[in-house]
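User: Hi! I have a protein structure encoded as tokens and I'd like to know what sequence might fold into it. I'm fairly new to this, so please keep things simple.
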């Protein structure tokens, strides 16, 4: 497995990146003074409040508070993980991403090259299947099958649907031009190899659905039978580039169609996803022959705030829904919603949308059952709550599950509902407590549309000035932070960490570099709030920085003086302490 990406490389990548160029390729920016602005891509607004500062290589939205450097933007806008964002940015600038070498780790270039060749070969396989759909001897039969399923040529092309020929070695004979390629085809499970070295195609005589990862690369295939021979669906086995518990069919296409995705619909089959898209219900995804996993849930909640799981209304469908519910609890934050839609027996999304149409089908989605309702409906049906024993059994199963819920408010309200069902209260007091808590929280909430009301103490002001201009740490040499003591100044450790970073950073270090270096720091939230606080653009930054430092020195002197005076009242000071007290009193008089 490849090692970590060196921090030096990440800092250099951020430094050489042009954040305006990267963002403008995705969100049209307009020049506004020294900065650029646009309507924020992360929330709906009519007046631009999204600002990009080229000198700081940083973006900030005064409407929703979204902020960060070029890597943060790629993560949030393109829905990428951190490593993926770094790799994409490096690729844009033609750079190879180095890896720190661990014991037994593969070399970065070899590992990267292997994966790239895997993706290239998978894309060639997808093109081969598409070509066969039009040119194979059985193509007319396959096309008629797709037409019979109600799919248009446009939809077939959009999803890259193809055909795996019925011959034993159709793909192998076309792509297996060398031993190394054949070995790669075997490793990618496109070709099977028996003990006697006999090889044959894994997919044969099937309609083929390419499965793309969230970066759009083909990582696997799903094949559906045309006749009645073999299993209805056949999915690629897991490989070094495909792990079915992490991938969702259609997610890449959904994200391409929706930058601000309000909902995801989870269905059971590829054909359901494709058929729904033909009716402009283009926000459906499907698990790949497995239950909806915790990794699937996490991925979906990163993409949207509402997930609707669509299942058959039979026993198997409800059992699948319950497994999805259990897997979702640990990711159910306040503001995130999971709902369940159960279709009539014998119906699936494909047949249902063709029968009742888009408008009626979307009405069913709107009316789907919230997770909380499904949760209690199932448990109340399972346990006879008319008896004490039944209520005890209900609580015994429900409470551990409720306690897994990540969102504090959702967890509390579910507990209150459980108590109400068991006849132990009506939840009124709890609801009042929540209302009061939300009221208090609202008072403390930062108003990003106007200058922050956060009090800028000297230490906060020094931090804010360093965020504005990291080079102050080197330029104002008279401000020796090492002379300050954390015993007398709250928040000093954070200031020392920032100063230490800025002192050791390159001369061209920017705001973006600081936020990248402290991305996972326990006080990053405090830095975010500080950065949201506006300061006068006309102040002398160096003079203000040193003035705040002098105030901290005075605070420290006064605190030590008070400490020694108080100690003198209850005990005898040492000779050194007496001398220190005299010096402090003299300094204070001056």
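Assistant: Happy to help. Inverse folding works backwards from shape to sequence: for each of the 590 positions I chose a residue that suits the local structure. Here it is:
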């Amino acid at each position: 497995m490849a090692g970590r990406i060196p921090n030096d490389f990440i800092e250099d990548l951020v430094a050489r990146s042009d954040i305006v160029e990267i963002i403008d390729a995705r969100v049209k920016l307009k020049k506004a003074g020294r900065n650029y602005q646009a309507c924020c891509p992360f929330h709906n607004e009519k007046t631009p409040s999204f600002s990009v500062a080229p000198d700081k290589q940083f973006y900030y939205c005064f409407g929703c508070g979204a902020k960060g450097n070029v890597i943060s933007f790629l993560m949030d806008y393109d829905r990428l993980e951190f490593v993926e964002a770094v790799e994409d940015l490096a690729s844009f600038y033609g750079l190879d991403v180095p890896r720190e070498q661990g014991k037994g780790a593969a070399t970065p270039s070899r590992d990267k090259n292997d994966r790239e060749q895997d993706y290239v070969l998978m894309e060639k396989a997808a093109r081969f299947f598409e070509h066969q759909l039009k040119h194979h001897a059985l193509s007319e039969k396959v096309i008629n099958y797709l037409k019979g399923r109600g799919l248009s040529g446009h939809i077939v092309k959009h999803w890259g649907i193809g055909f795996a020929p019925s011959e034993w070695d159709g793909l192998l004979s076309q792509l297996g031009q060398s031993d190394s390629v054949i070995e790669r085809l075997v490793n990618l499970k496109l070709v099977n190899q028996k003990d006697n070295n006999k090889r044959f195609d894994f997919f044969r005589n099937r309609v083929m659905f390419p499965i793309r990862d969230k970066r759009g690369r083909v990582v696997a295939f799903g094949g559906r039978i045309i006749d009645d021979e073999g299993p209805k669906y056949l999915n690629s086995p897991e490989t070094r580039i495909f792990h079915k518990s992490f991938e969702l069919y259609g997610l890449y296409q959904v994200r391409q169609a929706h930058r601000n995705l309000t909902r995801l619909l989870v269905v059971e089959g590829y054909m359901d996803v494709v058929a729904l898209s033909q009716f402009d219900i283009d926000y459906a995804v499907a698990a790949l022959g497995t239950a909806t996993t915790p990794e699937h849930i996490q991925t979906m909640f990163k993409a949207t705030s509402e997930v609707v799981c669509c299942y058959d209304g039979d026993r198997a469908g409800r059992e699948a829904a319950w497994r999805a519910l259990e897997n979702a609890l640990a990711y159910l934050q306040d503001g995130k919603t999971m709902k369940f839609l159960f279709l009539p027996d014998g119906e699936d999304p494909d047949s249902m949308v063709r029968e009742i149409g888009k408008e009626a089908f979307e009405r069913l989605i709107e009316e789907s059952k919230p997770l909380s309702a499904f949760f209690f409906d199932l448990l109340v049906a399972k346990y006879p709550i008319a008896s004490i024993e039944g209520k005890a059994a209900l609580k015994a199963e429900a409470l551990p599950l409720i306690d897994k819920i990540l969102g504090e408010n959702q967890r509390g309200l579910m507990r209150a509902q459980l108590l109400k069902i068991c006849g132990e209260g009506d939840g009124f007091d709890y609801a009042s407590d929540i209302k009061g808590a939300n009221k208090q929280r609202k008072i403390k909430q930062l108003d990003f549309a106007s200058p922050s009301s956060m009090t800028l103490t000297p230490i906060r002001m020094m931090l804010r000035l360093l965020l504005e201009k990291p080079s102050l740490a080197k330029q104002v040499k008279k401000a020796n932070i090492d002379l300050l003591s954390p015993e007398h100044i709250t928040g000093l450790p954070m200031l020392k960490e920032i100063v230490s970073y800025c002192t050791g950073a390159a001369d061209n270090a920017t705001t973006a570099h600081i936020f990248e270096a402290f991305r996972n720091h326990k006080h990053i939230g405090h830095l975010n709030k500080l950065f949201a606080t506006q300061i006068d653009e006309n102040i002398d930054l160096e003079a203000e920085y040193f003035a705040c430092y002098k105030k901290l020195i005075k605070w420290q002197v006064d605190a030590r003086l008070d400490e020694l005076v108080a100690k003198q009242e209850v005990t005898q000071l040492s000779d050194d302490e007496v001398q220190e007290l005299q010096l402090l009193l003299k300094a204070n008089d001056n």
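A useful reference point when you look it over: The first strand starts at residue 30 and ends at 32. Feel free to ask if any position seems puzzling.
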